[in-house]
């Protein structure tokens, strides 16, 4: 009876509250698991902080991970994967475990449709389509992580894994990279600093994880289309050979039938994508994220390279190839991952500012990245341009953007800046002038954007400060707008006028 009541209560919750409660519960369960695994060697506050950092894929740790037990590393790996699957997947997993049927809820199907593809209000996804999208997200995650782990295992230098087994170090690093967690069981990736290929593998995993699952799914669809064209040509050649064999011998080798069968499988897969991912948002938002990511990576790479190339504490003693790979790696990780190959406390002040900007912007929505998101940032820029010419609507790639999307972008930015300013004041009071304000601010932005970079402040935090930073990670991962909706029970953004038929861009 109590279970039935709990299920009914769970079904009545808004999905903003389901997401918030799901992450909240996972953090607490993870904290107890970590505390038990360390058998009292780790304080509960540190366990809670580490659990929040793992679930929120942040990467900040109050203690060296190399000193933790293997069982703790496994628990962290599970928490990183669970938190990094994304808000949509995580919500569904929690729902299935508790209610065993949340995806049959029509409101939830519409929610997934809006989050993944932003279809029109008259459309909603069927349960099979929701399951198909979620299955794609999970399949893509595991496939990319496994490929990344294999690449690291085969290529990384001998001995970089320390006391860990080589395969587990490769797997942990790959999972942490794709989920943009920034954790390393050897505390950092300094052992890979002079191995450009391994750095590029990690960078690729970070980029794919941070760009957002809808874009990855679309890229998979594009690749499948290319494969279909290649297979079609092979199929034509195979049919010609079959005819020749049939005329000469009367028998047709079975292997000549494989291209046709493979082509049919690929075409069915593409047809499914066309059903599940339709609408202009898939195309517009994907272009926005790809171009935006490229621009931010280039900005970060150029800035970091030229600012640090003569710094004796960072890049000065490296050759040009290693300088390029490390500058690119730091630019990639600045937006959400937080891996480091050197002590960030030795960076130039201007470099710290660039990294702070990149952290605040973050990656793509519905991925493993943090920050206010690229889409939010670009919409704000487009809106500012629109202020100069107020008679024109906000445009992206020649398409009118939904007024609601612009409104949400403005609100996300406003909420984020106000909340960060308030918490910054509190942290400054708690710090009692022990550290520079820019060090505290850097740590705050890193926590909110779930990046994991630190100017060596994390290990010096008091228990109350750790709780504040853990709360900031939580809000940054779930989304400040989601937290506000969950707290107030409001549906979000009201209609902006009678007609709002522009392209809806996912923000926040």
TrEMBL record:
Q: Which Pfam families match?
A: TrkH (PF02386)
Question: What InterPro entries does the database record attribute to this sequence?
Answer: Cat_transpt
Biological process, per Gene Ontology: metal ion transport
Tell me if Transmembrane is a UniProt keyword of this record. Answer: yes
| UniProt keyword annotations, A-Z | Cell membrane, Ion transport, Membrane, Transmembrane, Transmembrane helix, Transport
Membrane topology according to the record: Multi-pass membrane protein
Q: One GO MF term, please?
A: monoatomic cation transmembrane transporter activity
Q: Where are the transmembrane segments?
A: 12-36, 75-98, 133-155, 197-219, 288-307, 344-363, 408-430, 437-455, 467-487
Q: What do the Gene Ontology cellular component annotations say?
A: plasma membrane
Q: What is this protein called?
A: Potassium transporter Trk
